[in-house]
Design brief:
four-stranded parallel β-sheet, two-stranded antiparallel sheet
Length: 199
């Protein structure tokens, strides 16, 4: 087992990255998110709306085997590099990984690269960084709003128009359209004239 563990999102990237980094590194895949909001508590939201919207997370059931594999690999490693995608979701995945792997007495760093080339990957590992907590908070907020709006609005739509779900994007877009239509309908037409004169 290699001393340095790298965790990426996509299994298809892991072998290529492992070849670029060499035998000191073991590259494993999380296959996307490993944790999500629990489906319990008031309304099954996994969010305590009465106490600052505190979220409760749990390992995604179908990811339990992946989590065990990553945990076992992390126990054997001395250094762990979280190389999930360079976006808000990727940052959150890295943050969630910290809660399911063994990080005790280990160097844990985040690496970001925008292309799967040897140059880009080696450059990223020359300049490891910390997890961006602002991006994590952004994703966490989006997910909480998605859960609160999605669960509640989906149930309403299912009962009224037999729609399967209501996503946060559709909901916001629909509100913009409705608000605009209300403005149009509220316009009272008045006849007026403009006079231009020189004295």
């Amino acid at each position: 087992m290699a001393d340095k563990l790298v965790i990426v999102e996509s299994p298809s990237k892991s072998k290529t990255i492992e070849q670029y980094l060499g035998r000191d590194y073991s590259v494993r895949s999380s296959k996307g998110h490993v944790r999500d909001l629990a489906i319990k508590g008031a309304g099954g939201l996994g969010v305590d709306v009465e106490h600052d919207f505190k979220p409760e997370y749990e390992v995604i059931p179908e990811k339990k085997a992946v989590v065990k594999e990553l945990y076992d690999a992390s126990r054997a490693a001395k250094e762990i590099y979280l190389a999930t995608d360079p976006d808000r979701e990727g940052e959150a995945i890295s943050w969630h990984l910290l809660s399911v792997i063994d990080t005790k007495n280990k160097l844990v760093k985040r690496v970001i690269f925008n292309e799967i080339t040897k140059t880009a990957i080696l450059e990223a590992f020359e300049h490891p960084i910390d997890i961006d907590e602002h991006l994590v908070s952004s994703q966490e907020t989006r997910r909480i709003v998605d859960r609160i709006m999605g669960f509640r609005l989906s149930k309403l739509l299912q009962s009224k128009i037999k729609s399967k779900s209501a996503g946060r994007v559709q909901s916001a877009a629909l509100k913009l359209i409705v608000d605009r239509e209300k403005l149009v309908e509220a316009v009272i037409q008045e006849e007026y004239y403009e006079l231009y004169a020189k004295f």
